[in-house]
Every structure is written in C-alpha cells, then in structure tokens.
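Before the break, one more example. Copy the sequence into your notebook; we will annotate it together after we see the structure.
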Amino acid sequence: MTNLPPVPSRLSGAVDLSSLANRPQPGAPGAAPVAAAAGAPGAAVQVPSLVLNGTDENFGEVLELSQHVPVIVDLAADWAEESVAFTAVLQKLVRSFGGRFVLATVQAEANPQLAQAFRVESVPTTAAIVAGQPVPLFAGVVPEEQARGVLEQVLQLAAQNGVTGTASALDADAAAEAAEPVEKPLPPHHAEAYAAIEDGDYPAAIGHYKTAIAQNPADREAVAGLAQVSLLFRLQGKTIDQIRNGAAAAPDDLDAQLDVADLDLSGGHIDDAFDRLLTLFPKLDAAGKNRVRERLLELFEVVGLEDPRVAPARRRLTGLLY
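Here is what the structure looks like once it is written out:
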C-alpha cells in the first residue's frame, strides 16, 4: 500500500499558481463561475457541476472557487488507462461528499502551465486548492478508502482556513448522470486486469490481457491495455533519478535508454521518448534494432494510434527499417 505524506496543517505556497490567477477568461468550457457572495461562511456556491474541466485558461476561476469550497485537482491523461480509471474514482468520491468538494480534472499534457506549476512527473497526480493555495496530496493511484481519508483531512484543513462553503450543482449533476448511457460491463479478462492493476499486481494484469488477446487477436483494447500495464511494470520500483542518471552515464546501454524512453512517455514527453529511440536505432545491431522496434510499437499503443505524434514517428521508423 502506498504511504501518503500527511496533509499539512496549514497552507503551503510551494506551488506557484499566481500566473494563472488573473488572466482574462475567454469562456472556455468547464469554467467555474462563483455565484455566492464572498465572505459568507458556509454559503452555497452555484457551479455548473461538481466535476469541472480545468485548463490553463480557466484556472483563475478555479482558484476563485477555492475561496469558498475546496477544489481537488486531478492532473490526468486520457491516454493512460490507469489515470482514466482513477479519475472515475475521484469523481465518485467527490460526489459522495455532497458538495463539500469540487473536482477539477486537468489534462496535463494539454495544459503545460498547470503541469509545470504542479510539478507533474507522472499521471495521475492529485492536489487540492484551498483558499487559492495548493496542497499536494499524492502521485499515482491509491486505494479508494485511502483517498477518502486524505479528502477528509483536506476538509479539516479547509475549515482551519475558513473555507466552509458547499457547492450546489445537484440538479445539473443528476441530469448529467441520468443522460449518461449505461456502460457495458467489461469483458471478464479486462475486468480481472483492471482489478489486478488496482491491487498493484501488474504481472497478473499482463497475464489477463495476454489471455484476452489469445482468445481474440483483434481485441484492440486488450492490446492497448497490455502495452500500458507493461509500461507501468517496467517502471515499477525505479526512481526518476536512477533512470535518468543511468541513461546519462551509459549512453550506449540499450536497457538504460529504453528505461528513460519509458519514463519520458509516462511523464507526457512523448516526442522525446520517440526521438530518443529513433535516434539510437541506426547505431544498434540487428537484435538491438528489433528490441527498439518492438518497444516503439508498444509505446505507440500506449499513446494511442490516432495520436498525431504517432504517424510521423511510425514513418520515421519505417524509413529506418527499409
């Protein structure tokens, strides 16, 4: 089980969000207009939804909202299966508190200023904003009950800083949930893989995805899931410094370069990951070239074959092969 750092008893300004606080608002989707009068303890704040889309452009309104009700910030990536699953957990948790929180989900790669401000090194990364000030919570996925306990600590911190309002969007949220189609149940091996990922048992998840592919080689979701969980497994137990220092010290070590490409991609530096391996490719023997080719094909699956960065990298790889 992941050990979480304690939520601080007072606010910290370690993350600088000042550059995002006062920018003009272009009416971007997901903005969080505040309707309650400022300075009314415990007042209800009207928001379009308890779950908002945070962006570099609208985050000033999110900061304003945090003066009235604490905001949980989910820095995520919609191409990462683990991140998507954890966003759903955070949405469920935030709604279960009945308006005492608002969740702002930020696609880290599409919002580089926020990713830099929150020092995102991997997704998902979770933080809180209380009275305009950031509170780092945790990086990666944690069990639902553990996350609930941290949110309860955030409520205590918010109360200590006079942030005791509630967000009112019950009708809007209920209508949105009612309009959502009922999700189809996951195929058995996919469901077992998800459960294994939540338990941190990546080898078991890999086994379930491989079984699904063996039964249906055309199962694209299983292929993508296998690539994603394999990436997580390769990075498990390795530190950022260990990987980067190892690659810098051994520029001709293929394993070290494959590791740092995995790290770059997991942190959203997708072009860097592709370029590293494609630049290395011509220097390798036949066995090394085959390993790089296989790893690139796997990373293409992690990012998503429809991603605009994949096609140029694939063309470059084809040119190197032939």
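Strands lie at 44-46, 51-54, 71-76, 102-107, 125-130, 133-139, 166-168. The two ends are 47 Å apart (CA to CA). Try to locate both features in your own notes.
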